[in-house]
Amino acid sequence: MRPLGLLKGGFAALVVFFLIAPLIAILPLAFTDSVFLNYPIPHFSFRWFVELFTTDVWRRSIVNSLIVGSAATVLATVLGTLGALALRGKRMSFFFAAIRTVFLLPMVVPAVVLGVGMQLIFARWGLANSYLGVIIAHTVVGVPFVVVNVLAVLQSIDVRLEHAAASLGASPPTTLWQVTLPLALPGIVSGAVFAFATSLDEVVLTLFVAGPNQRTLARQMFSTIRENISPAIAAAAFVFIAGTILLALVLNLVQKARGASRPA
Amino acid sequence: MQPGTLRSRAVVLALMAPLLLFLLFFFAVPLFTMMKSAVSDPVASQALPQTAAAIRGWDKAGPPSPEITAAFVADIRNIEDDELFGDLVRRLNSAKAGFRTLMAKTRTAARETDGAVDLVSVDARWGDVAFWQAVASAAASPITDRNLLAALDLKRDAAGRIEVIPPERSANRATFMRTFWVSAVVTLACVLIGLPFAMVAASVQGWKRQLLLGAVLLPLWTSLLVRTAAWFILLQDNGPINSALMWLGVTESPIPMIFNRVGVIIAMTHVLLPFMVLPIFSVLIGIPKNLMPAAASLGAHPIRAFWRVLLPLSMRGVVSGSLLVFMTAIGYYITPELIGGAKDQMISSVIAYYAMGAANWGMAGALGLILLLATIILYTVYIRFSSEEEVRR
Amino acid sequence: MTAFIRLENVSKAFGPLTVVKDLNLEIEKGEFVSMLGPSGSGKTTLLMMLGGFERPTSGAVWVNGKRIDALPPYRRNMGVVFQNYALFPHMTVGENVAFPLKMRKVARAKIAEQVSRALDMVQLGSFAARKPSQLSGGQQQRVALARSLVFQPEIVLMDEPLGALDKKLREQMQLDIRELHRRLGLTIVFVTHDQTEALTMSDRIAVFNHGKIEHIGTPAEIYDRPRTRFVAEFIGETNMLAGQVESVAGDTAQVRLASGQQVRVAASAGLRPKADICFSIRPERLRVGSGDGAQNELDTTVTDIVYHGDHLQLLLRAGDQQLLAKADRSGKIPEAGAPLAVSFSASDCWIVA
Predict the structure, then answer these.
(1) Which of A112, A147, A233, A238 is the mutation pick for testing B, counting most B CBs within 10 A?
(2) What backbone torsions phi and psi does residue C21 show, to the nearest 5 degrees?
(3) Is C103 within 8 Å of A170 when comparing Cβ atoms?
(4) 3-class state of residue C163 by DSSP
(5) A48-260 — its CATH code?
(6) Cβ <8 Å between C72 and B3
(7) Are C208 and C265 part of one and the same domain?
(8) A residues 78-137 near B, CB within 8 Å?
(9) C266 forms bridges with which residues in the sheet?
(10) Measured between CA atoms, how close is A168 to chain C, in angstroms?
(11) Closest by Cα among A16, A61, A50, A218 to B229
(12) Looking at the complex, does the CB of residue C70 fall below 8 Å from at least one CB of chain B?
């Protein structure tokens, strides 16, 4: 079995390298002081981070991403949680399976197709080149993640806890607020994190519906790569990855805190 | 129905309503609008509304009635938008040559006089039924199949039959083929790399498995743009990969890997590999651990056991993953757009060009409709496949 | 006088499956009634209908003269103890117990006082700040009990609350619940599949089978004079013997068994000769050995002896009939394969069908 084990290990290592190396390769370039985005790095410098946070166009794009991301996350989380609550425990019938598919469709449809439609109709409704339009677009693609996550956690809540609350005098809205939602919080939070990450990364829809004033960070990165490649990209990528790790840590902490109060 | 049930049903509907309405307005309506623009003909509905209504009863043989000519003059007089007028002229001209000058004269005449205009006296060509037939075909219906046909490199000739557009002027079929071809290659690459990797991950425990899974999940967590940007850097002629290859002596001059098919395939495989590994992995860990030992106890050589037991059982994950990867790949925009060259354009780039570059909503919609159809069909197959297997379990 | 709790012709169907069939049950105030039966017999469903978590497909539920089957659970004011305790994991023990008082808008100071009193009642006074996940199974159970009693309901429903506890803890809890029942004058409806539990705790037992109550009575009645064969075999262990009545004289009947042997059995009302009957005789009623002027004697062969700690269980064979008997460990221990005579009186037998 030894040679097979070596083969397995070698192959796995190669694939892991293939998967991870590109991410690692781009990070050091964020610290180059040259205007060219390739190796070798002549000297290390923070100039591109400075550029990222001080240049008008980059700074505005970061602010836009935060504004749009937060708003879209809140909207997606509220709508998605309500939708998941409606679907909870109703998997069998055709009607509810269809509704569930509808809630998940934005994940399936190619973004370009949706983008064309949105551009057309948003212009007619006066939503073109507006923050609201971009927020709505990001919400549409973020909602499926919230629905999936919240549905999953709702399924793990024992329905007898809600019966117990009712037997103790809690009306359905009270039960929802005092028992169900607090217990569903980990799923809601992880859904929100996914929605936020999706909004941060969203380029295609943004291309179609955002005006020059609503350019998000991702949109800006896309233009820069296409037209005028510079190490600012690497700095932005670094910020992205750092942000992702931060989010993952937040998620992890929330899970741990909730885990302490799970039934034995 | 008991009153309690009625109330709880109302509650469920109330909970569902906000999201449903939101998706209706901002997801369904945009898609529907796109589909409509694929088949709508602005010329008839916007430029010649009165003519369209009046000409419906015409037999297309004898000269048109005074109502028709009067409606036509009124419509021409009403067109303020020069772009729309230009569209109208183009449309008419594509049905019968000569409309450019004809329409220019007619427009001037309609604007200079109020009331009735004798079109034949403006230009003798209005006496020719053929020109009115062209008007009739343009005003015929608000729906046209022109865009859809063009999306597949087809058009209708003068008699209305469908014919193929010559290859020098058509590129859509080629683009579709290219899109499907690239996606298929990427899917195959993902299977060849992802299946063994998933098998290795399923066969180890503890930290090793966590490491392998983490390596798959970390790219998923990373922004797509960042991953694409990373490949953009890596695949350059003077990038790290070429530098390493030259340093190792594998090649003398840099291998072009960016702005060509190779780069696109490599980058897309990297991005889509997790979508292949995860479904296969989840299928594999569902297989009872004692199945292979059982096969061995029944006398199967390890390779035979692998071939006849493990591989067929993992097929479910492979098919599932392949559908997922293929379905996602055909709709991809960012990676092919940034990494590919001019000859590597996939259908999404063409759609984006028509929408944002040329403002040709008809073509954008038509191509988008076909892409959407292909995606929906694949998704339906995917759903059927995964639920069928669930039931069989 | 109408009963405190009355279930009138209650049925419950889930789709094509009828789980409770046309059930009638009356419970007096202050009674401890156990609902006993195998899984799927409908007892938990009935409890759920009492609590308002399921609605009867047909029939009515009355409490204290008022019809409640349309009333949602949060207005029924009944304490419910669930099988898995159902303590809110995100609240402390104190908050769990305070929950029903909060729902009833009791003043904050009064809540604290009543919570501590309820926790003292179950000997968990110092645990108020802990989370349920930090408690053992038995402690969680007691918190669930305190929570269901703190708002002083008149009726308490319990759905197999002691099922997850080990034997010693279970027996202790049975005594504690019994004590609380007496002290607080509660009406308790208790679902269990453990017949020993039902026998030790209840004022009356309702034995369920396939959605119907086969027999409802005191523990003694259920055990000594079971109404049907199912009840006789479900409660405790018993020997069922079949035979034909040869003659009836006063309160005894002469019965011929399939093996040919004749026994004298306590006659039930209206018993006629030539009737085919089944009667039950409890293993502990079969005395090993003959003599002492017993009314009946049966010749058997010992097939096996099983050690049961404080007694021996004897498996005997009479003809093609298997019998169970109990013997204490003093005296001669019979050998497997040896013949053995057992004796019993006519009144030890109880005709079930």
Answers:
(1) A112
(2) -115, 110
(3) yes
(4) coil
(5) 1.10.3720.10
(6) no
(7) no
(8) 78-80, 82-83, 85-87, 90, 99, 101-103, 105-106, 108-122, 136-137
(9) C252
(10) 5
(11) A218
(12) yes
Report CA A6 to chain centroid distance, whole Å.
38
| Per-residue tokens: B21 | 């309405």
Question: Is the distance from CB of A148 to CB of A104 less than 8 angstroms?
Answer: yes
Residue of B351, B356, B377, B30 whose CA lies nearest to B176: B351
Amino acid sitting at position B106: T
C249 and C131: one domain? no
Indicate if C225 and C243 belong to the same structural domain.
no
- Side-chain half-sphere of C84: how many Cα atoms within 13 Å? 13
Contact (Cβ atoms closer than 8 angstroms) between residue C278 and residue C238:
no
Count of C-beta atoms within a 10 Å radius of residue B140 = 15
Within this chain, do residues C48 and C195 fall inside the same structural domain, yes or no?
A: yes
Residues C220 and C319 reside in one and the same domain = no
My answer on whether C169 and C31 are in the same domain is yes
Question: Are the C-beta atoms of residues A264 and C132 closer than 8 Å to each other?
Answer: yes
What is the C-alpha end-to-end distance of chain B, expressed in Å?
35
Tell me the pLDDT tens digit for each residue of B293-341.
787 787 778 777 778 878 888 888 899 899 999 999 999 999 999 998 8
Residue C174, domain extent: 5-230
Going residue by residue through chain A, which has 264 residues, state the pLDDT in tens, using 9 for 90 and above. Answer: 577 788 888 899 999 999 988 888 888 888 888 887 777 778 888 888 888 888 888 889 999 999 999 999 999 999 999 999 998 877 667 888 888 889 999 999 999 999 999 998 998 898 888 999 999 999 999 999 999 999 999 988 988 999 999 999 999 899 999 999 999 998 898 899 889 989 988 999 999 999 888 899 899 989 988 887 788 888 888 888 887 778 778 777 877 776 554 443
Q: Which residues contact B205 (CB under 8 A, 6 or more apart)?
A: none
Instruction: Report CA-CA distances (Å) from C34 to B287, C202, C216.
Output: 45, 6, 9
Task: Examine the fold and report which residue of C190, C212, C230 is the final residue of a domain before the chain moves on.
Answer: C230
Q: Which chains touch B (3 or more CB pairs under 8 A)?
A: A, C
Q: Are residues C169 and C82 in the same domain?
A: yes
ipTM of predicted complex = 0.87
A168 token code pair: 């103790």
Find residue C334's DSSP bridge partners: none
Backbone angles phi, psi at A209, to 5 degrees: -110, -15
Closest by CA to A205, choosing from A132, A138, A126, is: A138
Residue A79 has what DSSP assignment?
A: H
DSSP helix, strand, coil percent of chain A (3-state; round to 5):
80, 0, 20
Judge: A163–C88 Cβ closer than 8 Å, yes or no: no
Distance from CA of C87 to the nearest CA of A (A): 7
* C213, β-bridge pairs: C208
CATH of the domain at C31: 3.40.50.300
As a whole number of angstroms, the distance between CA B188 and CA B196 comes to 13
